[in-house]
Amino acid sequence: MTDQDWTSAWIDDAERPVDPMEELAITLGTEIRELREGLGWSRSMLVRRSGTARSWLTRLEDGNGLPSVVVLQRLASVMGKRLWITLIDERDRLPPRYSTGKEV
Q1: pLDDT at 49 (0 to 100)
Q2: Among 20, 34, 64, 67, whose CB has the most other CB atoms within 10 angstroms?
Q3: CB atoms < 10 A from the CB of 23, how many?
Q4: Which parts of the sequence belong to the HTH cro/C1-type domain (predicted)?
C-alpha cells in the first residue's frame, strides 16, 4: 500500500460528504431495530410475522438496504405502527434525532 493509499484510508468520516441515501438507510434500519427491540422481539419473530427474509431484515437493520414502501408498511403493521411519510424541503432542518450534525 502506498503512502497515498494510507492517507485516503484514514480520512476522517466528518470530512466525507453525507450521502442522503446512505443516511436514509441507516435511519430506517435504526428505527426498525429499535421498534422490534422495544417489543422484545427477536429478528426471527419479526421475520415470521412479516414474511420478510431474514437476510433482508438483517441488511435493513444494519443500514445496508432500502426497503420498498410496501415492505415498510408490512413491517410497521405487524409491529402495531402506522407508516407515515413526510416530504420536507431540503432547506428545512431535520429534527435532532435525524440530523447528521453536518450543516452545508
Answers
A1: 97
A2: 67
A3: 16
A4: 32-94
pTM of the model: 0.69
Residue 62 corresponds to which cell in the numbers above?
Answer: 444494519
Q: What is the 3-state secondary structure (H, E, C) of the chain?
A: CCHHHHHHHCCCHHHCCCCHHHHHHHHHHHHHHHHHHHCCCCHHHHHHHHCCCHHHHHHHHCCCCCCCHHHHHHHHHHCCCCCCCCCCCCCCCCCHHHCCCCCC
Contact present, 54 and 47 (Cβ < 8 Å): yes
Please give the single-letter amino acid code of residue 5: D
Quick one: fold of 18-93?
434 Repressor (Amino-terminal Domain) (1.10.260)
Q: 68, 29, 71, 33: which is closest to 52 by C-alpha?
A: 71
Residue 100 confidence class, pLDDT cut points 50, 70, 90: low
- pLDDT tens digits, 27-57: 999 999 999 999 999 999 999 999 999 999 9
- Amino acid type, 6: W
